[in-house]
Structures are given as C-alpha cells and as structure tokens.
Amino acid sequence: MTHSSDCFLQAQEILVGGVNSPVRAFKAVGGNPIFFKQAKGPYLRSEESQDYIDYVLSWGPMILGHADEDVVVAVQQAVANGLSFGAPSVLETQLARLVQSFVPSIQKLRFVNSGTEATMSAIRLARGATKRKLIVKFNGCYHGHVDSLLVAAGSGALTFGKPDSEGILDDVAKHTVVLEYNDRAGVGDFFRFKGDQVAAVIVEPVCGNMGVVLPQDGFLATLRQLCTRYQALLIFDEVMTGFRVHPGGAQALYGIEPDLTCLGKVLGGGMPCAAYGGKASVMDHIAPIGGVYQAGTLSGNPVAMAAGIATLNKYRDTHAFEKAARATQTICEAVQDHLSHHHIEAHIQYCGTMFTLFFSKGPIVHLPSAKKSDEKRFSVFFHHMLEQGIYMAPSQFESNFLSSMHTEKEISRTIKAFEKSLSF
Q1: pTM exceeds 0.85
Q2: Is 27 one of the annotated active-site residues of the chain?
C-alpha cells in the first residue's frame, strides 16, 4: 500500500469521499488519487517523493509555474502586514487597474473569492439590471456550483432546464434555458421565441469543462448580435480562459466584446481570487451605488491582491503567455502528427495554453460529440501517463494547462510519454 493510499483511507474517514472537490477522487479514471506535498515550477511532488510534470496546475492558475519566487515574496510581505482587513486597501485598486489594462471591456469590476461567486454575482446583476428572469446557458459549459447554473439540458433545444443536482429547486432551474454550444440556429430560434424575456446569455467563449472545445466561426458573433438586438446582456465566463487563451482573454482572441466578464484562476496566482466586471452602466447597479446586493468579507483580501499583482506583472513582463502557448502548440502538433501517422482514433484540441486529448474520430464541437469520446481508453491512457511521471487532468472532460516554466526538457519528455502511452 502506497503512502497516498494510506492518506486517502484516512481522508475518507473525515472528508466526504476523501476529497474537497469531486474530480479529485479519480472516479472518472479509476484508482486512488495521488496526494501531493510540494510543488515547484512545472512539477508536483507526491507524498512518496515522486516528481510529476504537472499539466493540471491547480486547474489553471499557475501560469508562472508553482511557487514562483516573486509571487511567494509578494505573499510573504502581504502576510506580514495582516491576513485580512475587512476594509479597503490600495492593493484592490492596483490589481483592478492591472486587470483593466488586459481586458479593456471591464470599465468597473468587483473582486470576489471564486469563479462560482463571480458567475453567481454576474447573473444576479444581469437580472437586476434588465428586470428580466431568463438566463441562457449552454450544454457542457460549467459556471460553478450555482443553483441556477448547475442545470442540465432538457429533451429538446427549446426546453427549459432541469436540476443537475439534488437540492436544486425546480422553481430555480426553470428560469435557466439550456441550448447547445455552437448551435447558432438553435440560439436564433430561441431568441425569436423568448428573446424579450432573456436577462443574459452566459457562455464559456472557449469551453474547458467538456474538454477544450472551440467556438465555430460566427457562434460568438451571433450571441453578441442577438443580445444587442433583444437588449439582453452577454456574459463571458473567462474564469478559465482569462489570460490563458490570450492575454486579453477569448474576447480579445475573437474580437467579441461582452457586457460582463467573469475572471478567476490566473487572476489570483494560486490564491482564492476572482472578479466580475464590465460596462460601468451595468456595474453601477451593484450596491452601494445600486440595488443589487453582493458582499464578501474576504473579497479583495490583501494577500490575494498581492499575489494577483505579482502574477499579472510578471505574466506581462516575462511574456509568460507566449512561452506557454508555444509549448502547448509544440506538444499538441507533435501528438496530432503521431496520431495521424499511426492511424490512432484520437484527436487533440487546444487553444492558447489549454488542451484536451479526445479518443474520438474527429473534432469535438459540443457536449453530445464530446460524450462519444472513449472514456475507458482515456482511463488506460491516463494511468500510463502517470506511470511515466506525467500528471494530467483525471477526467476526459477537463482541460489541461501549461505554464511558462514548461521548458524543452519537460516538453520532450511529455511527447515521448504520449507516444508510448498511445501505443497501448
């Protein structure tokens, strides 16, 4: 019995399922999760003191790699000045200005502690600002464990949502409409049917929660056009894509400006930090200026703000995105060439610094096609990669990430591991 197995047994005695977030339990791939005790650069070190090249990167935040020295120093200095004030600090303004320099569509913003808080608050704001009830989301897009957004698709393209979790009331879910990602015609049909009742459309502009799925030509533009025409708000959930598909997010990559943007992950450099923001005319509906209430004792926490400032400054000054994106492209092109050369039924999809390997016949464009990917083959592949010291997302339907610290050494080793693991 390995040390991680012992740790997992002990954890299950006191933690629900032995974990604090479901995907960590390895249910999708089988076996027991690895427990880690240390991380540095592109590596994780397990309780057995085995090093793994990390492509999960705390599910995205660590674009500078783990334990970046400048970020660590900034956090240590902030901690020495106090863990939390529950009052304003200039660090909040500094990080807000820095965020705005990357994402100009954000005229005003509000810091929160998680992506879930950001999307939840943006939805409440959209309803308060428009005085409408309906929210449109897309099948396969995950926006946190908010009751109104943790909703699955109904039986048809124009059905209302139904709860995707016990404990969510039908009366809450019925105000969420679930459409198919990349289905321009379906979105158009729904807006002709109910467009004047829609408060907002919320979308992952590049999906990361059904694996990496890119928007087809015209899809995001169609959403923008329909929202403008029917006076609904367009919300880009860039919690995952922010700073990862482009320094300015997916909105800069595709040239589509949303009304509201949700950010997280990279923003806090590994500390709990997220934000939502957008047009001043919309954001000014939030208290204390407007009537939409949202608050948080730890929002704008000085330690998280310091980590965010250090992360985004270094991200910009060291061209971290460009380095990580080149590494991502190198791995993905090499793997796709190997798949094609050996006629392996699999496909790798990537955008910026995010990628997913699907065991499918061709490109994935929405959730139904993603579900056709062979999960059993993925599980075998995942464990072969683990045996070679490569730690990837323990689910077929999650994104993997690269950092600026993944060098030629790690890239070469990863490509070889892919080639070996794909031969089984």
Answers
A1: yes
A2: no
